[in-house]
Amino acid sequence: MARRLVLLAALLLSLAAAASSSPAKYKATAASSELIHRSCRETQYPSVCEQSLSTYKSSPPPRSPQELARAALSVSVDRARDASAYVGRVCGGGPKARAGPVRDCLENMADSVDHLRSAAQEMGGAMGRKGSPAFKWHLSNVQTWCSAALTDENTCLDGLSRGVDASTRAAIRGKVVEVAQVTSNALALVNRVGPGH
After folding, report:
1. If you compute the radius of gyration of the chain from its CA atoms, what whole number of angstroms results?
2. Which CATH code fits 61-197?
3. Where are the domains of the chain?
4. Model confidence, pTM
5. What is the tens place of the pLDDT at every residue in 7-27?
6. From CA 123, how far away is CA 191, in angstroms rounded?
């Protein structure tokens, strides 16, 4: 009997602890949603920004502009990797698909993935105190890699305008435009981490 009471008391204590911790979790999620909403208004593609970051699974949810920028970069890496894999499948589809512009696009997208991965790693590392020379240097690296990724994505899109059939061009373009939009948003969020924000 005494053993049952001890087990019952332990169960009640664990339930009470879980109940008291759930409001804090809800507040963190609500605060994260507000941060996403407020920050995405400052990007070029706000609805794409909110949708991609609201559905992105990060643990814990972003609580600061720097964590939000890191999450946006991770989203960009995922989308760029998916688009690169898609272009790779198109390249494997026959002699025309292996021709110049699609092959060049594949190389551009592979470079974009590398640049975005480097930016996300740098943003997630120890950047130093905000405003310090070390922080500015790390942030500059992130901005440079993001800009380079955007250039790669736009170069891919520009190259598709020549010598690629309309259906292949439209399919690849849809994937790469999506990546360019989330990358543009990520760069805008990275820029908000800098001094003066």
Report:
1. 22
2. 1.20.140.40
3. 61-197
4. 0.80
5. 444 434 443 444 443 333 334
6. 12
Q: What tokens appear for 43 in the block? A: 């990007």
Contact present, 74 and 56 (Cβ < 8 Å): yes
pLDDT attached to residue 122 = 94
193, with CB counted inside 10 A (0-12, 13-18, 19+), is buried
172, 90 in Cβ contact below 8 A?
A: yes
- Residue listed under structure tokens 């970051």: 53
Give the helix ranges, DSSP H, for 41-165: 46-54, 65-91, 100-124, 133-159
- b vs e for 7-31, b when ≥16 Cβ sit within 10 Å of the residue's Cβ? eeeeeeeeeeeeeeeeeeeeeeeee
Per DSSP, 39 falls in state H
Q: Would you state the pLDDT for residue 131?
A: 85
Separation between Cα atoms, residue 82 and residue 45, nearest integer Å = 20
> What pLDDT shows up at residue 154?
95
Query: And the tokens for 41?
Result: 């208004």
Dist. CA 115–CA 39, nearest whole Å: 23
| Rounded distance between C-alpha atoms, residue 65 and residue 129, angstroms | 14
Looking at residue 104, its amino acid is: D
**Those residues with Cβ within 8 angstroms of residue 52's Cβ, 6 or more apart along the chain or in another chain:** 72, 75, 79, 182, 185
DSSP code of residue 55: S
Q: Give the pLDDT score at 80.
A: 96
